[in-house]
Amino acid sequence: MSDNRCRVIFSMKGNNFLIIFLFLTSFIFSCQEAETKEEITGTPVAQVGESYLFQEEITELLPPNYSQEDSTNIVKRYVDNWIERKLLLKEAESKSGIDQKELEERLEDYKYQLLVHAYKQNYVNEYLDTLVTEPQISTYYEENKANFELKQPIVKAYFVKVKLNTPQTQLDDLRKWMRSDLEPSSDETEKLKSYSYGFAASYFLQDDKWLPISELVANTPFDRNLLLQKNKFVESEDAAYYYFLKINDFKIQDQVSPLDYVKSQIISVILNKRKVELQKELETKVMDRAKENQDYKIFVVE
Fold it and tell me: What is the pTM of this model?
């Protein structure tokens, strides 16, 4: 055997894989035992260059209740993926054009980003105050109204879509309910909601929620540019459905967004500011502690 190594080419199929697998690992191990006895700390399964995959690593992957066939497939996929990754890495090391110094610098930078990010995130998770009060939200809103201009019209509205073959009496009821004042707890509102929950193809009945009008009337015959009028009721139809829409309130583009429309956005902004402040606090603590303990030195070269 050249270079004192045993090299074996084999195929692994079906349920015989584990048997062949165990036999060959023992065979490979016996062939290389004299040369690599001190290097190998387990039973080798595969080798690429100086890297080994050990049987003990694979054993940990196998769930206790899997069938032999499933376990065989898991092992084979893992071995194949391991070999492919190692071969690609070996190829990349020789042909990537990155010298060793640059590679070490990149790895050090990646290590810094990975570890420091995790450390900062753990610190933030431990000390972040997630309670954002209504006064805090209102204060931020009033101080930053210029940042909350609407990019498109929004509405508070009722919308109901029903099939074209809906009985006429039900259509008449829908029109009557939609034309009424539709106060939140009125009989007409309750009837409209009850009917929509049971029979409508789709609906939007959250009268306290702002919604972009483009989203509300998407895939309907309505022209959104003709709808912006308070307490306006409109209806339309196409080849398959009737559409009923009641505009309760609206805001046009470039107006300042209502507070309740941007409330969740404001909460996110406030929490993100707190996270940034905590990260800066951690950085300051680390530097102050290191300075106090004299953990670093600065050498000035003249």
Answer: 0.67
